[in-house]
């Protein structure tokens, strides 16, 4: 079996390192979450040190009472850190102080008994359940990133519930129970350390994702922006050129969009753009690439698609907009699209292909709008 004192020393060293790392991240990023999690790590270290004193001293007030309180504060600080991510930690502060005060009072008369151990275990278990729930409520860009952290919290809570069940069901003098409790204690220390480590990694992934989104996505519609569209399309076009595969491009422009802005205001215009984007997206397959490449202009790249199918798709998109008015703030606004279609020929590059699709679009406008023109 693992040697408990070694595990405790390792955990103290690791949590001190992680806490210091989180502190430097806080200094760098000024994100309060890092500060709360840093406090959580240092408090956990302090709890381990004070609890370890049990082996050397009879000062139960410190080695039991203070240690139990510290071990309760550590997950509470982590919970505040989760809420600090979207600046809602102040509303939870009173609840955390409440839990702490109740614990101060409840543990006071019992701090060196097994009841104190049971109480502390249950409070930690509930705190970790709440932390997993709070992560679920956190509105972050990539929820999947936080699944790993939620799993850590849930495993931790389950471990603590197992420990509570053991404490209730068996007398502590039974050797097997003592060993099981030691295993749980070790797992608790290991998983606390892992959880502390996972947060900064996830935060890093999250901010990387935000930067990537900022660089590649149109903030209004959430579609790709021009830059990302050109990069992605160039790769697809190269492949289509190499393997002589069918590929088409579409240029789409909303007709008389200036009138929408002039008549109903810019906010309505923005909502109309989002609505059109959703309608276009609904007609596409998963591997089609769509972007908002200008004010009221969209582009689509259709890999493995014949000219006939691209024309049929363009008609479906046109009709999806024409046949249903855009409704916003009691206004019913009729919109229409002009669309230019072009198929890949020879070794065309993406700019040439889009320029040709643009000619089709120009022709569609010239012919009276609300139509699809296949360019040559
Ligand atoms: N609300 C809103 N309007 C935008 C945005 N980007 C561009 N526009 C508007 O889109 C309009 C485009 O107008 P024009 O280029 O004259 O074209 P149009 O009125 O659509 O006419 P045709 O294209 O010739 O059919 C302008 O009024 C721009 O201000 C945006 O992000 N939000």
UniProtKB/TrEMBL annotation:
GO molecular function, one term: diguanylate cyclase activity
Catalytic activity: 2 GTP = 3',3'-c-di-GMP + 2 diphosphate
Pfam families hit by this protein: GGDEF
The GGDEF domain, residue ranges: 245-376
Enzyme class, first EC level, given as a word: transferase
Parts of the chain that traverse the membrane: 6-26, 33-56, 62-81, 93-111, 117-135, 147-168, 180-205
SMART domains linked: GGDEF
The entry's keywords: Membrane, Nucleotidyltransferase, Transferase, Transmembrane, Transmembrane helix
E.C. numbers: 2.7.7.65
Protein name: diguanylate cyclase
Lineage: Bacteria, Pseudomonadati, Pseudomonadota, Gammaproteobacteria, Alteromonadales
């Amino acid at each position: 079996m693992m040697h408990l004192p070694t595990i405790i020393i390792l955990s103290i060293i690791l949590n001190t390192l992680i806490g210091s790392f989180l502190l430097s991240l806080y200094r760098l990023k000024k994100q309060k979450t890092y500060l709360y999690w840093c406090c959580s790590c240092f408090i956990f270290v302090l709890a381990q040190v004070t609890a370890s004193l049990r082996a050397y001293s009879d000062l139960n007030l410190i080695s039991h009472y203070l240690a139990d309180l510290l071990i309760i504060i550590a997950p509470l600080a982590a919970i505040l850190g989760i809420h600090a991510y979207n600046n809602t930690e102040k509303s939870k502060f009173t609840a955390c102080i409440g839990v702490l005060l109740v614990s101060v009072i409840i543990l006071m008369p019992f701090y060196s008994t097994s009841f104190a151990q049971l109480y502390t275990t249950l409070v930690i278990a509930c705190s970790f359940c709440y932390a997993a729930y709070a992560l679920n409520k956190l509105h972050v860009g990539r929820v999947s990133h936080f699944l790993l952290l939620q799993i850590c919290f849930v495993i931790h809570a389950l471990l603590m519930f197992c420990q509570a069940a053991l404490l209730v069901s068996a007398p502590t003098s039974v050797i097997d129970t003592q060993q099981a409790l030691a295993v749980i204690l070790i797992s608790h220390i290991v998983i606390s350390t892992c959880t502390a480590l996972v947060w900064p990694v996830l935060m890093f992934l999250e901010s990387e994702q935000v930067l990537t989104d900022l660089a590649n996505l149109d903030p209004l519609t959430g579609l790709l922006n021009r830059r990302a569209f050109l990069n992605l399309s160039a790769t697809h076009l190269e492949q289509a050129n190499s393997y002589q595969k069918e590929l088409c491009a579409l240029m789409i422009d909303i007709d008389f969009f200036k009138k929408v802005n002039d008549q109903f205001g810019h906010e309505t215009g923005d909502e109309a753009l989002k609505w059109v984007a959703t309608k276009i997206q609904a007609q596409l397959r998963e591997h089609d690439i769509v972007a908002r490449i200008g004010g009221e202009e969209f582009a689509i790249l259709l890999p493995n698609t014949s000219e006939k199918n691209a024309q049929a798709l363009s008609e479906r998109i046109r009709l999806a907009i024409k046949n249903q008015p855009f409704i916003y703030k009691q206004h019913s606004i009729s919109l229409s699209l002009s669309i230019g279609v072009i198929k890949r020929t020879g070794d065309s590059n993406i700019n040439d292909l889009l320029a040709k699709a643009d000619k089709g679009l120009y022709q569609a406008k010239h012919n009276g709008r609300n139509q699809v023109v296949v360019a040559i």
